[in-house]
Amino acid sequence: MKVLVTSSRMPFAVDMIRKLVEQGIEVHASDTFASAPGSHVKGIAAHHVTASPAHATPQFIDDVIKLVGDHQIDMVIPGFEDTFYLATAHDRLDPITTLFTGTFEQLAHLHDKLTFSDMCEQIGLNTPHTKVATNEDEFKAEVAEREQWFARACFLRGGVSVATNTGPLATRRTIDDVHPTVDNPWIVQNFVEGPMVCSYTVFHNGKVTAHSQYQAPRQWKDSTGIEFEAVDANESLPIVTKIGEHLGYTGQLSFDYVRGPEGLTMIECNPRPTDGILLLPADVVAGAITNPDFPQTLAVTGQKIELRWAVAAQIFTESPKKMPKSIHDLVHVPDAAFSIHDWMPTMYSLLSLGHFEKDALKTHGHLFDVMTEDIDWNGTPIEGMSTADQAVLDSLEHAATTTA
User: Which one, 114, 262, 325, 348, has the greatest CB density within 10 A?
Assistant: First the structure.
């Protein structure tokens, strides 16, 4: 089998590529720049540079279609939010390859925090009381009705664009710092007390083939996880099974939950791979993605893995009393990118970090934003999208406007 993994800069894409190669699959990797770490995994067939999914969508899709044709690619596996852009081209890709992601409509409704919350209520899953705000007055009114609240932009990732009056993030952004619009609505929810847990799942036609559940004992600035530990995946398996069956979904989905008094409460969905894939062995990753009949397999509880460069960088921002634990983790917790037999992705991770740091300094942007700005999707129209997919976006705007 021949596969193309896109957005090869992402740590979970590096891991996926390495595991697919290990299982004897011919892997092609692509990104918008040549030094993307996953494009230098030992044993890949070739690495390719494409146009930006976000900034040059028609050319990006043409590039992928050309790669499929030139190399007889059997399956295209999106590595990040380029999945949204590729999903608008199902009609062009499906006749020539397998695009391993859902329809644009499915992806958009899962990524939008409001429509995701509505779906969870519809199928009987726990979700916080949710309202949407499309202007500052609506936002302040919704916040005023809640003693403890948590708010997020309808489209976000990695703890970006959040505000709350409770917990470690309470001082990050004030009410006056939030400026919702019809094009960029925010949801306001009752704050749910409890630890955050996450999951990563592979589906074929609604059936779960692989599933991991994990927590992030170490986070960057109390938001983005940089160390991950597998916990009992049976806790969330009934939830993801229900969602998969409801949608008849094919592809990779990741969910965030809060474990509260009533069990797991749904928080959000990232309809793409996330770090949960790091906790699954190579044979499971390869089998679950490429074989619809692969037997359902869960991650083994207790495994740990980290993003070592981020843990090392965090040492310089944390209190000295935390340093011994950080040094211990650097020595004892496996790194997501490093392998003694495959050290090139680690070297290219450092090169890529310098590349993005330079861009961040130029634009005065946040490093984590800059790292994905040319491959992410924030609910905006996509150049070349069909009338039907544009109607999906219009319906999301309508929902945001009327629900408020």
Answer: 348
Contact status, residue 128 vs residue 193, Cβ threshold 8 Å: no
| CB-CB contact of 57 with 35 (8 Å) | no
* Those residues with Cβ within 8 angstroms of residue 304's Cβ, 6 or more apart along the chain or in another chain: 227, 228, 229, 230, 333, 334
What tokens appear for 112 in the block? 């939008």
In contact, 82 and 53? CB cutoff 8 Å? yes
The torsion of the CA quartet 77, 79, 80, 84, rounded to 10 degrees, works out to: -20
Contact assessment for residue 19 and residue 44, using Cβ atoms and an 8 Å cutoff: no
344 vs 24, 42, 174, 308, 339, CA distance in Å? Answer: 19, 8, 42, 15, 9
Higher pLDDT, 269 or 183: 269
For residue 334, the 8-state DSSP code is P
Note whether 34 and 49 are within 8 A (CB): yes
The pLDDT of residue 247 is 98
pTM comes to 0.86
Which tokens is 130 given? 């949710």
pLDDT of residue 220: 52
Angle, alpha carbons 140-367-88 (nearest 5°) = 75
Beta bridge partners, 215, equal 229
* pLDDT confidence band for 364 (50 / 70 / 90): very low
Q: CB-based contacts of 369: which residues, under 8 Å, 6+ apart? A: 160, 360
Residue type, 155: F
Residue in 369, 311, 354 with CA at minimum distance from that of residue 35: 354
* Measured distance between the N- and C-terminal CA atoms of the chain, rounded to whole angstroms: 49
CA-CA distance, 313 to 299, in Å (whole number)? 28
Q: How far is CA 226 from CA 15, 284, 335, 393, 397, in A?
A: 14, 23, 10, 32, 34
| pLDDT tens string 212-236 | 999 975 555 545 666 789 999 999 9
115/396 Cα distance (integer angstroms): 8
> What integer is the mean pLDDT of 329-337?
58
Burial class (CB in 10 A: 0-12, 13-18, 19+), 281: middle
Tokens of 109: 């409704």
Of 176, 216, 177, the C-alpha closest to 196 is 216
Q: Is the distance from CB of 100 to CB of 250 less than 8 angstroms? A: yes
